[in-house]
Design brief:
Length: 645
């Protein structure tokens, strides 16, 4: 009887909640709060849970969702309502995820998973694993994200839930896209496509359109990167299929994506007029598609009209592109700068093309991956070649003008004008040469910033550890640590600065991996001054690790006592002081004079400090010498204090 009454009260709360409006998004939360205040028993948990859902789905306010999910969990725990504790913990996990509190989110999901497994609730186990996949994807831990999504996929496969299985495969494809694993992208795209015949064409039309649209996009992406026309042809076929389903079931988003992909593919295949026609069809739905899609369509129209030499319409579409809000987000400014460069170059507006290129070059480091950087370098070489040719043409033209002036003016005036022209030319050449030298140094740093010895040594550490270790969990933890170190190292290739806190975390993980390799040969400590704001101070990445690696690989090699490596961070009046010490063998007087003991990374660090001093007008420096306090080597680095903006 008590259980029955609880159910009745629960549905009264739900009925009150739904009676405010038939649409979930139109609910007045104040009405639900009044209901909540009237409850005195377990149904109060239900009211708080519904409020948490409201603030997520309608208002999308993570803080409010956290508040009410916590209250729901507390009330459910007081009354020992197992299923409601699980529901509340799930809601709390989602709220923490959206608030970017990833550790708290993971703990909330873990609490919910304990209950789901104890009650053998398969549906909830799958749902929690799926949410964990989303959590780690948002946290940029792609390995864990793929693990949970694939775990979810396995459960959907056993249940023969083909619709959700296809959507899970689509999430996995996104992960492999971010990792540039093209074979796996296509593999899981095909797995999702293979499930379409098993779906209900009428009830699952929106899912089918989503699968076909995703397939068209990913086949086209791989086709462009690999220069594979077969891939692009398949992308166009899937776009056509997407169009057929979208038109039949009047699904706007599907039609938009299909027309855009088809138009973009036709543009790349040289059918420019057909491309423009399909891109305009995509624009017919601009009011019901994301702003980013509108931005992409206008970008493609600029390129298409530029190819045709229709500069008037190209400029019009470029202006429309700039008015879209997405043009100021993510890589929008960089794409616009590149579009302007190609457009102005085709229009022979050299000064405008140069200005657009310079903006493009400044933005590229923030957004481009390794392959895109290569494309930018190629573009830069082409541009510099064209610039030199233009300068030669300009010089030839100036020479002709000077000749005419010499014929019409007195010899003395002519000679004076020629001298002025030569001085101006030499000054411009000197300026261009200086810019080129700076760009060459920056490119050399981009290519050489990452030391391959680090990866080889770290992998050797894990290999030896694997041979000694039989604990799979410990091995997995070590691999995860190596993955984090590797990702941090790769990301440093295009990060100008990172926080001191991130650098300390990186050094701890790196030395922990080396500790696995030599567990009894050395110990280490990393000590920041307590007064340092390590989460606010910024430093160039990977500037300390090469010196630490030298201590391990050179200084502590061949000693017959326990090695010690220490890293200290101290703050002076306007500088950050970094001291790296070891108690190794040091180097001889001859080595100290030649400074050959330091690795080849030293020259790269010299270049980086040089550029840092130029940009910040600072006096950054470093010194390497035998440790005056005893054994080993002492490295002293002084960097300017840079704070997070």
């Amino acid at each position: 009887m008590i259980l029955c009454m609880q159910k009745v009260k629960y549905w009264l709360v739900v009925a009150t909640f739904l009676s405010v409006s038939p649409l979930f998004g139109a609910i007045n939360p104040d009405s639900l709060k009044i209901v909540a205040r009237q409850q005195r028993d377990s149904t109060l948990s239900d009211a708080y849970y519904l409020l948490a859902r409201y603030y997520f789905q309608t208002e999308h306010i993570p803080d409010s969702m956290i508040k009410y999910a916590q209250l729901a969990a507390e009330i459910a725990s007081q009354h020992r309502l197992t299923s409601r504790i699980m529901m509340s913990k799930k809601a709390l996990g989602l709220a923490y995820t959206e608030a970017r509190e990833f550790e708290l989110a993971e703990k909330a999901y873990a609490d919910a998973m304990v209950i789901a497994e104890q009650t053998k609730n398969t549906t909830e186990i799958i749902a929690i694993n799926n949410k964990l996949g989303y959590l780690f994807g948002l946290a940029n831990d792609l390995t864990k994200s793929a693990y949970y999504y694939l775990k979810t996929a396995k459960e959907f496969e056993q249940l023969k839930d083909y619709r959700n299985l296809a959507m899970t495969y689509k999430n996995v494809v996104v992960i492999f896209t971010l990792q540039d694993q093209h074979d796996k992208m296509i593999d899981y795209t095909n797995k999702a496509l293979a499930l379409i015949p098993k779906m209900n064409a009428d009830t699952d039309a929106d899912y089918i359109v989503s699968m076909l649209s995703s397939a068209a996009q990913h086949y086209f992406l791989v086709g462009e990167k690999q220069k594979d026309s077969d891939m692009i042809d398949k992308a166009l076929l899937y776009a056509d299929s997407c169009l057929q389903v979208g038109i039949r079931y009047k699904l706007t988003s599907g039609l938009t994506d299909a027309y855009y992909i088809k138009g973009w593919g036709q543009l790349k295949n040289g059918d420019v007029k057909a491309a423009i026609l399909n891109l305009h069809k995509a624009l017919n739905y601009r009011t019901s598609i994301p702003e980013r899609s509108v931005f992409n369509i206008y970008s493609a129209l600029v390129e298409a009209t530029t190819v045709l030499g229709d500069f008037q319409n190209a400029q019009k579409y470029l202006d429309s592109c700039k008015t879209v809000s997405s043009s100021e987000q993510l890589d929008g400014p960089m794409i616009i700068a590149e579009i302007e460069y190609h457009l102005f170059k085709k229009m022979k507006r050299d000064a405008a093309a140069l200005e657009a290129y310079e903006r493009f070059a400044k933005l590229r480091e923030q957004f481009l991956n390794t392959e895109q950087n290569k494309a930018v370098n190629d573009l830069e070489v082409k541009y510099q070649t064209e610039l030199k040719e233009a300068k030669i043409a300009e010089l030839n033209q100036q020479t002709k003008i000077d000749s005419l002036q010499i014929r019409s003016l007195l010899a003395l005036v002519g000679i004076a004008l020629l001298i002025v022209a030569i001085l101006v030319f030499l000054y411009r050449q000197s300026t261009i040469k200086s810019k080129l030298n700076t760009m060459e140094v920056e490119q050399r740093l981009n290519r050489a910033r990452m030391n391959p010895h680090f990866f080889f040594n770290a992998l050797a550490s894990l290999q030896q550890y694997a041979l000694r270790q039989t604990d799979g969990v410990a091995m997995a933890s070590s691999l995860s640590r190596f993955s984090n170190v590797m990702r941090t190292t790769l990301e440093s290739t295009y990060q100008e600065y990172i926080t001191l806190e991130d650098e300390i975390t990186f050094l701890n993980e790196y030395l922990s991996i080396q500790k696995i390799r030599h567990p009894k040969e050395f110990s280490f400590s990393i000590t920041p001054d307590p007064n340092l704001e390590i989460d606010e101070i910024m430093i160039p990445p990977m500037i300390i690790q090469p010196f630490v690696e030298n201590s391990l690989e050179h200084g502590l090699t061949g000693i017959n006592y326990e090695g010690v490596v220490t890293v200290k961070f101290e703050k002076t009046e306007n500088e950050l002081q970094i001291l790296i010490e070891d108690n190794g063998q040091g180097f001889s007087e001859k080595e100290e004079k030649s400074n050959e003991h330091i690795s080849r990374a030293t020259q790269i660090i010299k270049d980086r400090i040089y550029l840092l001093n130029r940009k910040k007008k600072s006096n950054a420096r470093y010194q390497v010498s035998n440790n005056p306090a005893g054994l080993g080597v002492l490295v002293s680095i002084a960097l300017p204090l840079i704070y997070k903006k």
